């Protein structure tokens, strides 16, 4: 019995080593075959896309909530006093928008005719805040809509539905486009 135990205790480590060695050889062969089948540039592209996907993962519910809050804060900032694009609106846009979009918005209010890029020139009122809606279009754009006051052809005030697309870069606003201008 003692000889058998010694033999088994000697045999088992050798057997385990052989199995581990064999698995390692199989993995090396399969890796080599994979490398030969997939071109290096495609492999690099797949790796980059996976890294970008992991980096850009943002909870949709969180983004909708952030956009609703941004438009609420923006409405409160621009309606706070008689200056349309005041320091509160300026700091809000600087914080939640990419640099290029922020500069475009600020330049328009300083030197242009006052086109409101943030709302696609629909404007926004406190009455609209309760009914603001944000719908995901794809991973980087959201449709924002709310009722607002417009003017008809005879210059009479009417209620219109503001609808525009907010394009995102990560968690920052990259651009805002009216839906009717999106295909142009």
Question: Can you put this structure into words, describing what you see?
Answer:
The structure is a single chain. A 4-stranded antiparallel beta sheet has the order 1-2-3-4, covered by helices on one side. It contains 5 helices and 4 strands; from the N terminus they run H-H-H-H-H-E-E-E-E. By secondary structure, the protein is of the alpha+beta class. It is 52% helix and 20% strand.
Number of helices: 5
Would you report the number of β strands? 4
Radius of gyration: 30 Å
Helix-strand pattern, N to C?
A: HHHHHEEEE
The largest sheet has its strands arranged as 1-2-3-4
Outline the secondary-structure elements.
Layout: H1 2-37, H2 40-56, H3 60-78, H4 87-96, H5 99-111, E1 133-138, E2 141-151, E3 157-169, E4 172-178
Antiparallel strand pairs: 1-2, 2-3, 3-4
Helix pairs in contact: 3-4
Task: Please summarize what this structure is.
This protein has 184 residues and is α+β, with helices and mostly antiparallel strands. It is 52% helix and 20% strand.
């Amino acid at each position: 019995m003692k000889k058998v135990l010694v033999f088994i205790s000697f045999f088992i480590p050798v057997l385990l080593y052989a199995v581990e060695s064999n698995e390692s050889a199989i993995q090396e062969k399969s890796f080599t075959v994979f490398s030969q089948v997939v071109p290096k540039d495609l492999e690099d592209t797949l790796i980059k896309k996976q890294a970008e996907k992991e980096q850009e993962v943002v909870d949709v519910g969180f983004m909708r909530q952030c956009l609703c809050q941004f438009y609420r804060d923006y409405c409160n900032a621009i309606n706070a006093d008689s200056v349309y694009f005041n320091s509160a609106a300026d700091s809000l846009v600087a914080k939640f928008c990419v640099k290029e979009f922020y500069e475009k918005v600020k330049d328009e209010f300083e030197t242009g005719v006052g086109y409101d890029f943030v709302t696609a020139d629909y404007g926004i009122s406190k009455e609209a805040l309760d009914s603001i809606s944000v719908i995901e279009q794809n991973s980087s754009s959201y449709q924002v809509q709310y009722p607002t006051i417009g003017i008809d052809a005879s210059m009479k005030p009417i209620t219109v539905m503001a609808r525009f697309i907010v394009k995102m870069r990560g968690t920052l606003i990259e651009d805002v486009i009216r839906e009717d201008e999106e295909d142009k």
